[in-house]
């Protein structure tokens, strides 16, 4: 049979020319042939690897040379066909119907001997089997890589040794009924297992303890349990509650939800991350009262809610002292809401003096109107946003030039037809003064 095959060729193909190879197969000594099959340079021979038997197989090839240039022709220089053959695997062994409820089957090899021991005797052996001295990159138990020759038997205990054990040693294992755990001399990746007086231990390839199922001393007190060092734990349920014992405890469910119970076994708190949405729920006396979760919408807001209609959310310390939010380091709280209500006066203050409310948008005053609903008045309580400045100047010979504050000029639009300045002047005494001239930073 064909273990592998390949076909390749070399050719000179000037511009406008090409060379392709096709192949045809016969499995009856040339009586009948397949259609011409196109080949890929450097790939398997079409149809060869699928054949179970190469007896009576014949093969022929043809080259197709094409050109679109009457002055240029391709040249086929060489065609290489390689077929690597191998004998088909035929496996023979003991009749499994003669095996009892507990049987020891051992297969071991070294360069000069391959032996099969069934129960307490060597069933067969091969001298000079031409096999590797140690395990290779693959080992197949009960079946080969193609899924053939499986005997469909259960394996109760399995021992894989990197060294050859003599037949008398392996028969001795069966007669004494010793467990088949990995021996001391197999300290290789990923590690080895040992049964010791204080428990079952797993070591890595550097002889470091990674798992202990048993007991150990801690502060002169013997502890019992499972110790995993730099490893992982997988379980459907993890609980801190002792079987049959009362008292508060915590559980981790298969979905990853953490539930904390009180001393009466009632739920007090749950933490979950179902659907990637973190949530915390608070209970009192086993009844859910409040919760917090990440909004699944586009804003991903943190939402704190109360379930009971007569309860609310209070921010306070346990002893009634003042609560500081966003304290230190210039931290801040962004309060995002359509309406914020204060049941009493809302005071803003610093630690030592009166504080202030700063807004980077407009600060509005709501005024109801008769025909236009509620109108929001801005900083100067006017229908539109205006900035206002005032001052006093004395007339000299009936004239005065007022220069505007340079900081104020940085905050307002220039005097144009679309944004005209509105200037009011008032004189104590005679009132026939007027604005005679307006400049970029002054008026007369």
Write the layout of secondary structure elements.
Blueprint: E1 2-12, E2 17-26, E3 37-38, E4 58-67, E5 75-85, E6 105-110, E7 113-118, E8 121-127, H1 167-176, E9 192-196, E10 199-203, E11 209-218, E12 221-228, E13 238-239, E14 249-252, E15 258-261, E16 267-272, E17 279-284, E18 287-294, E19 302-306, E20 365-368, E21 374-377, E22 402-403, H2 406-409, E23 442-443
Antiparallel strand pairs: 1-5, 2-3, 2-4, 6-7, 7-8, 9-10, 10-11, 11-12, 13-14, 14-15, 15-16, 16-17, 17-18, 18-19, 20-21, 22-23
Number of E-state strands: 23
H/E series, N to C? Answer: EEEEEEEEHEEEEEEEEEEEEEEHE
Biggest sheet architecture:
7 strands, antiparallel
Strand order of the largest sheet: 13-14-15-16-17-18-19
What is the overall silhouette? flat
**Radius of gyration, rounded?**
46 Å
Separation, N- and C-terminal Cα atoms: 110 Å
Distinct helical segment count: 2
Mean pLDDT: 78
Helix-residue proportion? under 10%
Strand content: 25-35%
Q: List the quaternary state of the chains.
A: single chain
Class by SSE composition: mainly beta
Unreliable spans: 89-93, 184-188
Please tag this protein with its features.
mainly beta, four-stranded antiparallel beta sheet, seven-stranded antiparallel beta sheet, 2 helices, 444 residues
